Amino acid sequence: TQVGVSQGHNLCPDPGIPERGKRIGNDFRLGSSIQFTCNEGYDLQGSKSITCKRVSDIMVAWSDHRPVCRARMCDTYLRGPSGVITSPNYPVQYDNNAYCVWVITALNPAKVIKLTFEEFELERGYDTLTVGDGGQVGEQKSVLYVSLSKLLSGQKRSREWVETSRETIPFAAGLTGTTVPDLIVSTQPQMWLLFQTDSVSNLLGFKATYEGNPGSSFPNPLFPKDQGPAECRDWGEKGAPLKKSKLCSVLAKIREFYP
């Protein structure tokens, strides 16, 4: 079956532009060709170039379908100042039994990785996205900075609560469900992501952007790296200990669930 057939003249119909992609060329006359590319983080599936051809005495048509841009597949090493990561097939449902790994490396070794989620929809408790510090997938001793604004949601928000919710804590980020996660920041110039799904249900997945940022632009952790649960300490922006507050007990509770 011919694609984009036009009858009675020498001009093929407008083939359109792929979603999450671009078209190069606007000449649809007989014999002309146009090209397609995809945005960063997406791969082209289909023909990169199509040509307007004659298919009969009175009809012209494009040589192939307009291509589509699919989310870049698993096991990808990403290096650059910024970019996009999506679950496979996003914004279409991801596949069952997926096992995908991404490792992000900042161009500047003095920078850390900031990960910001735009969309997030995974089957709660069964499909997960784990985010870790460094370049070794599965490392359990590492810590990340995660905003407290959503972790404290639902609690009584006094003035003190609002102020302290701007701080960050070390956190092992195993993400699932349909709540868009808060900002996640590595402590090193590398970050890894592991996406795993089961064999039953699948949802729309996730979309996140990553960016290299100077490490000094983020506050010190409230708990020093690799510190045990024995002592709860809060730290100011200049590293000076703060008076124990309601936040300290909340952090202790969080560490019980995320040791």
UniProtKB/TrEMBL annotation:
Keywords: Disulfide bond, Repeat, Signal, Sushi. InterPro entries: CUB_dom, SEZ6_CSMD_C4BPB_Regulators, Sperma_CUB_dom_sf, Sushi/SCR/CCP_sf, Sushi_SCR_CCP_dom. The lineage of its organism: Eukaryota, Metazoa, Chordata, Craniata, Vertebrata. It comes from the Eukaryota. The keyword Signal applies. The keyword GTP-binding does not apply. PROSITE patterns: CUB, SUSHI. SMART domains: CCP, CUB. Residues 10-71 form the Sushi domain. Residues 74-213 form the CUB domain. Transmembrane segments: none annotated. It holds the Pfam family Sushi. This is CUB and sushi domain-containing protein 2.
